[in-house]
Amino acid sequence: DWANPQVRPHMQLYPVFTSKICETCHTAKVVQGIKPELQVPMWADGHTHYLLGELSQLSNRQLVIPVRWFKLTDNGPVYSEEIPVTHDSIAQVNLVHADRSLVRFVTTSLKHNWFSLCDNGLVSTLQVSTEITQGRQMHTCYIKAWGDDVSGNRSKQYNEHRNIYFAHANLPQKKLSQKFFVRFCSMFPHASIGEQFDTLMVDNVTNKWHTAYDCMTSEDIVFRILPVFLSADNPQQSELCSHVGLKGNYWCRVCHLGGTQQETETDQIYQQHFEPGVPRTSEGTKLAVTQQIKVAALGVQEQVTVLQRQTGVKDKLAEFWIQALITKARHLQQICIYNKDIRDHRLQTKGNKNRAGHHYNSLFDVKTLDVHQDTPVELLHTYLLGQDKYIWHLTNIAWTPAPCQVFAVRLEASSIDGLTIPPIRASYMIQYRNSLIGKHFKTLQQLAVFRLDTALVPPLVQDLWKATDKLRALLEWDEIDKMNLYLADLEILIANVLDIWTLIDPKQIFIKAKLHILLHIVENVRQHGPAILFATEIFECFNAIFHMSSVLSNHLAPSRDIAWSCADLERFKHIVSRGSWVSNKQDHVAAGSNVKEFFADPHLQRQLGYAPQERLEPGAAKCPRKNQCASLIQRDTCMMGSIMNIGHDSTWFRCSTVVTQKQDVCQIGSWVFVNHNVRFSWIFTIISQVVEILMDANQGHCVKQNLVVIDKFLLLNSKHPHFNMPEIIRPPTPRMHTILAMELLFIVNVQHNYFDSGCHASGQQFCVQERLKTTTEESYIEHTNTNKYILNLHALHNAIIIRQTLPHHLTAPTMYLKN
After folding, report:
1. What pLDDT, on the 0 to 100 scale, is given for residue 795?
2. Domain that holds residue 318
3. Quick check: is 717 in a domain?
């Protein structure tokens, strides 16, 4: 990454103190949870290096000791927090202020480092260690590690392999969502994930430094690798935490929730399912594992089992030694090891020394990790394949073919404009309703609530859909500007989901462990930022590369073949993207310009999982070639109510799409928010529907001349009583306006208000198969009233900007149960 020009410019090397949390470097875990000396040990001004804890001097001759390097904005200057120091010229000593108060300066204010002060005689001896630096810059790199068991076969036959991948957390999330930036770490069919992590952590310790070539400064640097959190599904995260799993008495890996079957039936334990319990800690779990090992030396299996049931701790690595100790202890029961004449003196030196990585989980000793708090809840298995799957099963379990057909017709009539989902294919989803995958649940989460009524499900189930979908939309935020307000809304929505489940079936709180795990998302977001930062979908996508490597192996040594295959792929990616490497002459070289042109091929980029960010120009319109053959004059268009001076004899091309300020591609019929200028005096934001997109036939592709005809609607100042979302109505008189295309802000998803309009499947049309109409007829929804609509707040696309645009009372969640 350091030597790759496609990666290095995007690396953020310093923690950023900002209220807008959207990257790992912004999170409380990096900014506050990791000690400053473990974050960034050095700041460099060219070849002048300033280290933490070493005496330096500002340009105003003030002596200081830097204790932290940081930024206030991503692209802003580097700041430092420093302790002022006073130099006593008589005693020839440097005095630190007694209160040790910190001052903040821009690093460009630093003038002399320790070496310069030694030359000037302000310090008598050189105390800084150069064994590690050797004149090189020092940096810290964070990684997000992921591990899981994956099938090595492309067929349904399971062939278990245990894989570990990681991503460079210093990179922005837009880069980490691409397979090009995911790194293969290890794979072995026989070693557990915990054993592989033990080996990984050997290189990821605070005093382990690696050498690299920085392609931006053209010099060597040293860096260390620190894990910031561990991603996996729930069973794998339990294993990493040395936890018994979801089937144990104390089944929560994050807190001490649980008890025996009799205890969980009490009101006190039941109430604990609705709030986070006493948090587990690495030290506490390590102590529990050590105690189990000591008890196992007595040779009694029952006592070990009791400890595991009482604590919920079961270390997979320690379990091997526990069973070995029990067997050995029973074998040596008749030998008096307390007799000094026959006792081996070596037992005195090794008997009580349990070593991390040999006898128990080495993750407990990683300074920057608390495995219980740094294994954040991942949304794919916990929510999308958890809560969403539960409610879908609850919805359709009692359906006969008739309700299934009704729901399919309604769902097919939904508008997907403004949603980032594929075509719905409702008939397929209903036919295979018990075998849906993630993309289907994403579709249901955003649209199902608009197609359900009391004829299909009870009112409580409808309320559960609303609470579930609102929570999902909030969890998909990739940027949090007001953390406290966001967490308060998150707590309300999680509480609503649990409360409604309790009203439907109180036993589900016990059966569905993932419902309680949702409560820990609040603390995960507080520490690690938006939930999208610890999503695991990109690692699951990377399994496709592993599958191909496994299929092409001869399976005599699969781990070796797969590792070599992934290493070859990484080597190819590095070379073709013009990364540097050390030649035989010990200098750094890179591929030539022809290779650079080869990497620019979009087909190669797609195969490597690299997606360069293409910036669309706001206001740009696309005109089909057939429309360019015939221009229109103004009276042939829908232009009216224009505030611009447009000649009546001007000619226009009718376009198909236009780009908004938020890079959304809108078509005719799309719903958009618009900054509308009223007589050049004041501007307000309105919601409208695109009626026509026009390009000046004489100006060609001049973006500033593109126009959009919009149909203005009214956004009511109250929520719809049933959907609990903003309501949109058509004004009594048509309000067509012509605006500049650059005034379009962003696209939104709007659904027809069938609830008040009473729309039914009254229409008949021919089925289309393979793009051809058949003689088979099918029903479809005929909208009886096109004046009432609902703004879809369950939509994942533009969820943040929608809530920032609307008044807070239209989007703020409310408690379902007041008590």
Report:
1. 95
2. 281-360
3. yes
